[in-house]
Amino acid sequence: ANNAEGSLSGTLGDPSLATIPTGGVTRAEGDALFSQAGDEVDFELIAGFETRTSRNVIAQTRTGRTDNVVLAGAHLDSVYAGINDNGTGSAGLLETAIQLGGAPDVDNAVRFAWWGAEELGLHGSTEYVRSLDFEQQLDIALYLNFDMIGSPNAGYFVLDGDGSEGLSAPGPYGSAQIEQAFVDYFSDGGVETEGSDFSGRSDYAEFIAVGIPSGGLFTGAEGLKTEEQAEKWGGVAGEAYDPNYHFPEDDLGNVDRVALERNAKAVAYVTAAYGESTETVNG
Ligand code: PHE
Ligand code: ZN
Ligand code: ZN
Ligand code: ZN
């Protein structure tokens, strides 16, 4: 978890065990897949499950208040290659960490987290939050989530900190303020965003569950772009924001580089601004 200069302090998260599907296919004893190595038949594999160890990778600046931490995360695991989901969020976060450096002049410590096993049920982030005691949870000022930020038919969505649908996010001086910081950043750059509900489908879920204000960016998955959205954002109406979502075709070609650049800059700007102050963030 160290950067090239080795100046970020890094830790490997505690390994968390999760029982995960290995393909969802029930395989019978005598199946060719079992006989190839001449191994004993594993009971858990027969049921289509095995137990694997997954890790989070966490790095934190050496400067800044550690009782008012700005935590930014992206899941590192994927289905197939997972370039948009979630190489984009992981890379945007990594570039932010590298550019910020390990010992930047920040007032609040910035902690970067690359989560494991999100696709299998938000395991890495959930285990992480649960591993913290109440005081350690209180030391986290806010959580920023980046899951899919370069969808090929991109929407510009900001997690809706004051919405009424989905999980209710902590507010009023929490999630709604974070949403506003992203909205202002994009609007200064001439991009009109829309809110995206905290559906519970990404790594913010456990942070919200324990009352930590959260926000983040998302360029869309299997949802269909509307005519109105195509007019303001470009792209193709009636098609999915990411037609290759969770398919093998989510490869290096599956990224809108303009959307990725805009979003990655928003990741960097808002993360670094909260590193300076969590009182207000404005352009
Ligand atoms: N968390 C989803 C995934 O990694 C992506 C997603 C986020 C889809 C939010 C819908 C809404 O597959
Ligand atoms: Zn996914
Ligand atoms: Zn994802
Ligand atoms: Zn809102």
From TrEMBL:
Domain of life from the UniProt record: Bacteria
Swiss-Prot/TrEMBL keywords: Aminopeptidase, Carboxypeptidase, Hydrolase, Protease, Signal
Keyword Hydrolase found: yes
GO biological process, one term: proteolysis
EC number: 3.4.17.21
GO molecular function, one term: metallocarboxypeptidase activity
Residue ranges constituting the Peptidase M28 domain according to the UniProt record: 56-270
Keyword Protease recorded: yes
Protein name, UniProt field: Aminopeptidase
